[in-house]
Amino acid sequence: MVCYTTFIINKRGVEMELKTIERFIQQRGLKNGEDILNAFTKRVNLNLVPRTTREEVPIGHSKFGGYPDLPNAENHPGDHLTLLAQFRLSDFAECESVGELPKEGLLSFFYDLEEQPWGGVDERHFWRVLYTEETQLERVRVGEALNERAVTFEEGYAENGYDLYELMDEEVYESFEELFNYGELHAIGGHPNEVQGDVFEEAQYTYGERFENPFLLFQMDTSEELDVMFGDAGILYFLIPTDALLNKRFEETEIIMQCY
Description:
- By secondary structure, the chain is an alpha+beta fold.
- It has helices at residues 11-28, 33-38, 161-167, 170-177, 199-207, 242-246, and strands at 40-49, 63-64, 69-70, 82-88, 106-111, 127-132, 138-139, 149-159, 186-188, 215-221, 235-240, 254-258.
- The chain contains six helices and twelve strands.
């Protein structure tokens, strides 16, 4: 049974996913198997829990949508910004793939769903990431709220699609993609699931050299369950320079949005 406090680190699932990739390489007789494996990075995949009761997710727990949990209403970044998700960082303490994250605290992601910025230095007032170390929190009911859903977590692998495509011919690549049922692509860490080009390269072009090798702080996909769409069925990426992450300077987080 899944409850609101559930955190899943499915090491067996990670191993099975890796074995599936290795088996495909062997069955196809691909000579560049090591390069193909290097096109994958480990990350934490986020899964929505369908709501079955009217009970809200407990205060301070990880969730998508709903109203944010903050020390007080004064900490809310503004009623034009909607909470996309908040994550209790202790949930990730055992995940090697996101070891750069703090081990305690709450990380909350806000975005202007009406303006829907694509990302840029002149648009920073349209998103905000808050890091809260306080433990006494309250639910702050300001502005609009998305459908609230609990979340489970599972470590897995993310492909660098452009690298992978260059390592396989089209027919092999299409067969490989059929091995996995991705569903909604919500994640933390690893390589982003790009829609219109390499996200890391776009971040570096948009925000400068500090984003040469950023950390994917949060990737949120368009979601029917949450009733939210980014552009035309796109994906929103929150990125942070690694040095800023290690020093808990979450105010330096930037975004990129891509869509079809």
